[in-house]
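Notebook entry, structure prediction.
Reason for the run: the old model in the group folder had no record of what sequence produced it. Starting over properly, with the input documented here first.
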Amino acid sequence: MAGEELEGRWRTDGKFFRAGTRRVRMCAVTYGPFPGGWPASFEPDFARITAAGFNSIRLYEMPDLRLLNAAAAHGLNVFGGLKWAQSADFFRAPGLYSSAVISLTHALRDFHAHPALAGVYVGNEVPADLARWMGPLKVRRAIEGLIDTGRELAPGLLFAYANYPSTEYLEPENADFTAFNVYLEDEAAFRRYVKRLHHIAGDRPLVIAEFGLDSRRNGLARQAETLAWATRAALELETAGMTIYSWSDRWWNAGAEVLDWDFGLTDRAGNSKPALADLNPLPRISDSVHFSVIVCTRNGIDRIGRCLDAVGHLTGGDFETLVVDDGSTDGTADLVKKNFPWVRLIRLQAGGLSRARNAGAAAAHGEVLAFTDDDCEPDREWIERLRPVFASGRFAAAGGPNLPPGARTWEEAVVRAAPGAPSHVLIDDEEAEHLPGCNLAVTRLAFHAIGGFDRRFHTAGDDVDFCWRLRDAGYRLGFAPGGFVWHWRRPTIREFLRQQLGYGRAEHLLLEKHPARFSKRGDAKWEGFIYGGGPVRVMADSIIYHGPTGDAGYQAITNRMLPLRRLDKRFDTWTSQLALAVVKFLQPRLRGWARNRRLSYRPECLRKAQNAGPYEEFAIDSPEGYDREHFLKLLIRHGYRPAGDTDPWDLKLASTRVQLATERGDGLAKRTLVRVWGTADVAGILQPRATRQAEA
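New structure, fully documented this time:
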């Protein structure tokens, strides 16, 4: 870990954060809540936190002025946490949600301009059973509403929701970064899951918002070992930050001091544990492999300058740059020769994109050939992020996301949010089926083994054919979520639709060459999932894997919707929304016409869970602290069995179905909510001696 000085507000920068001109990584530790409230002085703790290499602290409540001033004095960024009754059915008691909005408003009104306040978590782990009870889409929209409120009041802050694996589907569409609390004590399992989270995050930075290990149950040595490998893995896996849970063993939760957990880096007396000294930075990846960056252009005089400026600032070791000019008539070659003398320029007669890429590969000296386009700007760490994929020895090609820069006009905003952009296709969380040609690196050996790009593809489709042939030859394609390029989309709707026609014509060539990879309707049959840039999130017709009783720790959305980017709020008007709706209607039909000479478009047929209205609803007040698990076991003893993985209910017996959720709050008392489909006397089983109150 490396501490970093507070230098201006943090901003998102593709898959990472930036402060001013510097890329920064969130190195955070959770702080509080403590029995008895905040300490009399923050100085001793904050000095030790900074000395340990942390640059941020995460709170579970909004900070006061005293804490913020102390954090600023030590160069610490503060990520506040909105404290509200999120573990109750806040739709039945709207005042709970209203109080959250009021609390957020008051806190930001007072402190939004404070230099130490970097961001706010508007919620933390809405329980999975309550999310299902209230409706996942409604809950997600409530979280998004809090983020919108916060951003209106404090546009300079970062906003997120601290999610956890059981509710992946709640990921808010409008968060600045994706944050997950992950407690996987096995390194291999942790690494696999972080790779999955990158794809849930889409274009956004990924932050591990909590990770820790209880030293009381596991011992001090294992805690130190586990936090060390987790910190190292989070860095290697290109997260934008990591938050260790927690600074101290002293912890206050649910109205009482927690005495049977010891997650802290310091004990209850304030003494350092071995884990605090063992949080080491990631060793630098070897830069011995020589890269050749190849940029093909045709009449790109308005674009090539930005591209080469970005290439000139690449880090990550030795590389050369080649520009292949495919018969430009606008002076592109002369501009490159004059302004970028360090670039090797190759001039060709116009012959198409594939021919140009092959010419660049033939002239290149590097062991790895890295292709991008003249309308792209590689992130400065692009090569650095691709290297580990090749260093693993498992992959012959690699690439990462292509992200659109912020829209400058309403038309650019519409195009940015429209389907049909070049996207990667992933078989799993680390292996790709397809990588767009604007962000595609391949070993020289594999490139020549399959004969390079097919010259029949002049403007598009060459990368799809190339990746399919790589896979057919037995090569594997890796994915680097942090190795992104900024890719400018078409500036007008007219040009975008013309591009989609070109993509359709390219798909026609692909269909002729690879008929087995297309359906009878002419649609490409991908093994993997197409990623469109937005976060993977629940929609109105999503089906969620619940596990046998709705408590699966790691859940998924079964319809795997294409996660598109949202319409930029600066241009979110009724005219832009109408234009986007028209574009979404036309795009697949124009593309299908160019591909199949017919309007072959078939809307997705989504399976919906049967969820008729419940026969009755009631609540059980449980002073003994009984929760959902207790009542599930009670029903099972009476013959009820777990329902199917995608059913809205938890248990069933004959024609009767039951769903349960437990509201949580301070203290031991809990309130369990019950829905019943059918006529069986479920209430008599669950509370035979209590008075049942039916609810509307």
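Summary: Residues 1-7, 281-286, 600-611, 690-696 have pLDDT under 50 and may be disordered.
The old model has been moved to the deprecated folder.
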